[in-house]
Amino acid sequence: MKKNYDKKRCVCIISGGMDSTLASFMMKKEGYDIIGVHFNYAQRTERKELEAFNDVCDALEVTNRYVLDMDFFSQLGASALTDVSLEVPTDGIEEGIPITYVPFRNGIFLSMAVAIAEKERANAIAIGVVEEDSSGYPDCRESFIEAFEKAANLGTKPQTKFEIKMPLVHLKKSQIVQKAVELDVPLELTWSCYQNEDVACGVCDSCRLRLNGFEKAGVKDPLQYAVYP
Question: What pLDDT does 134 receive?
Fold first, then answer.
């Protein structure tokens, strides 16, 4: 089927988590055709995140999907998400850059998203980075994404012009929950836990941030947890 290149298209990086899912729904509301992109990077919850990605894409009625395998991250190591010899912290948010940081993950993901955007003649790329209320990852900073956008537009064909949208970058987790509820985002399809694939642990950094966001928003999290911190 011939593609309609007159319509706005957005390449959405969708991990299956709450943030990237909301960002994708926001792009759809803005009138974009969504192109879903997901990365299997040998993370502990790879199977569950892929399942969540497909469920979210079904809810968004996304038919154009890319699932890219990047198991070289396990060779790189240096992160508790990809190196099983390292323990995922469960005793609260760490100071500084935590051991769950995957070196330059967003930069690598964005590079692939740029290639897809150029191929698909997309107008935008969306990523659900959150700066203020994130886990302290340097590749979630607004300044980094802005610099990457400039570099990407310089490194692609002259007729390739797109912007990298980060609609959640200045939001708190509670605001993300509230916005998701407002847009009727199916949060029950999303997955945030760093450790488990069946029942969320409730004590890793990501579970704690999510649960805290729901609590402050006054909304009940639809997921089940093994432990409530």
Answer: 62
Q: How high is the mean pLDDT of the chain? A: 94
d(CA 16, CA 46): 10
Please say whether the beta carbons of 52 and 190 come within 8 A: yes
Note the pLDDT of residue 3. Answer: 63
Determine the pLDDT at residue 117.
98
Three-state DSSP class for residue 33: strand
Tokens of 43: 């993370």
**How are strands ordered across the β-sheet holding 124-126?**
65-69, 33-40, 9-13, 124-126, 163-165
CB-facing half-sphere around the CA of 143: CA atoms within 13 A: 3
Q: What is the dihedral of CA 1, 62, 38, 174, to 10 degrees?
A: 160
Burial bucket for residue 145 (CB in 10 Å: 0-12, 13-18, 19+): buried
Fold annotation for 9-217: Rossmann fold (3.40.50)
- Residue 103's CB: how many other CB atoms inside 10 A? 14
pLDDT of residue 197: 98
